Amino acid sequence: MPEGIVTELLIGVALVAILGAVFFLAPTRRDRTRRPKDADPVIAPPKPEETVTAEGPTTAPTAEADSRRAPPTAPEFPQDAVAERPSLRERLSRSRKFLSDRLADAFHGAPDDDTWDDVEAALIQADIGVDLATKIVDDLRDKARQRRVASADDVRALLADELVELFDTDLDRGLAFAPTGTTVWLVVGVNGTGKTTTIGKLAKDLKERNRTVALAAADTFRAAADEQLGVWGERAGAEVVRHQHGADPGAVAYDAYKFARARNLDVLLVDTAGRLHTKTPLMDELAKVRRVIEKEGQVHEALLVIDATAGQNGLTQAREFAEASGVTGIVLTKLDGTAKGGIALAIEQTLRIPIKLIGVGEAIDDIEPFDPKTFVDALLS
Ligand SMILES: Nc1nc2c(ncn2[C@@H]2O[C@H](COP(=O)(O)OP(=O)(O)O)[C@@H](O)[C@H]2O)c(=O)[nH]1
Ligand SMILES: [Mg+2]
Predict the structure, then answer these.
(1) What's the Cα-to-Cα distance from 56 to each of 184, 231, 352, rounded to whole Å?
(2) Which of 365, 350, 300, 358 is nearest to 334 (CA)?
(3) What is d(CA 42, CA 196) in angstroms, rounded to the nearest whole number?
(4) How far is the CA of 146 from the centre of ligand 1 (A)?
């Protein structure tokens, strides 16, 4: 072969190799928009001394489990990429705009009775609840008088302090893990609140933290519910245990638990049905799902999913679930789609159960840990 052709061939091969490498190594757009999980964890890796189970504080996990589960120490993605993901402030923009507009409208010079009535009305419309809104406005009025505060901005700052104080900052908002073996989180709530979506988001977050995850399709009532869970399982990289449509949810949960245990998986997330029109059997069914798991192990969290857009109605439904199924934490979803973010406070005040997570969109990464101060800042800043 003439030497010129050999050289050209070699150059060609080298070019293909370089292009191939660039293609495979370049981060996808999706990667670039992901937040660095460890800078802003949804599920904080449990510190041994903080790990709490239904049986009370537990001992430290084994060194082996620690090394297997240890999250990477550095963010996976460059900081500048984080800016692409909407901030909590942006996610809550509907609630924030509503409150700030209403506050601005209420103030024209020194506040009078009308001003405070308008503030109270705004809080009620933000779904904080009538009694709480009245109490907050009484406090605000006193504080404003004492501190000679008169502008909407100053009152907004006072209101922010007041709201943060009303959330119970002593509540443990972390999610409980088993010290060893399989952790079980049960997810309950009315249909359409976002249970299955939340499970998909949680599974993805856990997988990113190097935990192995299985999903139990114990909503056997709703047509195609298990397929929906299957799609989330695929996205997150978690196996889904399912039976046929109409099967006994307790049996699915039992099989799924056996499956997770046999494979020594870290976390089992149990999806459940939430139909409302057959309420009593539903609560019995949830109790049974819990019982069959507790025959062999433990339920570490029973997370009640509440749709923020349902406002005070959602709260009434939630109370029944909370009473019936030993709820340990609340996931408040669809906060991105409502101006009624005040419902968060109403929920905690009424149910006395910590909000642990919030849903802020339909995508797999749209879940955040709930922190009262961060939340109120995003709502009122
Ligand atoms: N905007 C928004 N939509 C959500 C959120 N969580 C769930 N959804 C949507 O709510 C609908 C019902 O969710 P699904 O998970 O099927 O509810 P389930 O019946 O409780 O399992 C779906 O269209 C989801 O995309 C959220 O945080 N924000
Ligand atoms: Mg569902």
Answers:
(1) 16, 35, 19
(2) 358
(3) 17
(4) 45
Neighbour-count burial for 181-199, b at 16+ CB within 10 Å, e otherwise = ebbbbbbbbbbebbbbbbb
Residues near ion ligand 2 (CB < 5 Å) are 195-196
Strand partners, 184: 268
Q: Which ligand is nearest to the CA of 193?
A: 1
Measured N-to-C along each axis, helices 93-106 and 372-380 cross at an angle, to the nearest 10 degrees, of: 60
Contact 229, 199 (CB under 8 A): yes
User: Does 317 contact ligand 1 (Cβ within 6 A)?
Assistant: no
Atom of ligand 1 at shortest distance to CA of 271?
21
Q: Which tokens hold the place of 241?
A: 């245990």
- The tens digit of pLDDT for each residue in 268-317 reads 999 999 977 665 688 888 999 999 999 999 999 999 999 999 988 888 88
Domains of the chain as residue ranges with CATH? 89-166 (1.20.120.140), 183-371 (3.40.50.300)
CA angle 166, 170, 176 (to 5 degrees): 125
Ligand sitting nearest the alpha carbon of 227: 2
pLDDT value at 162 more than 90:
yes
Task: Indicate if ligand 1 lies below 6 Å from the C-beta of 196.
Answer: yes
Nearest to 374 by CA among 66, 163, 209, 62: 163
Per this entry, what is the length of the chain? Answer: 381
**Which regions of 21-127 does DSSP assign to beta strands (E)?**
52-53, 56-57
The model's pLDDT over 78-112, given as tens digits with 9 standing for 90+, comes to 344 444 788 999 999 999 999 988 988 998 878 89
Task: State both tokens at 202.
Answer: 């949680």
Banded pLDDT at 332 (limits 50, 70, 90): very high
Cα–Cα distance measured from residue 236 to residue 213, given in angstroms and rounded to the nearest whole number = 9
CA–centroid distance, 120 to ligand 2, in Å, is 36
Average pLDDT, the chain: 82
Residue ID of nearest Cα to ligand 1 atom 7: 194
Q: Is 212 in the pocket of ligand 1 (CB under 6 A)?
A: no
Determine if the pTM surpasses 0.85: no
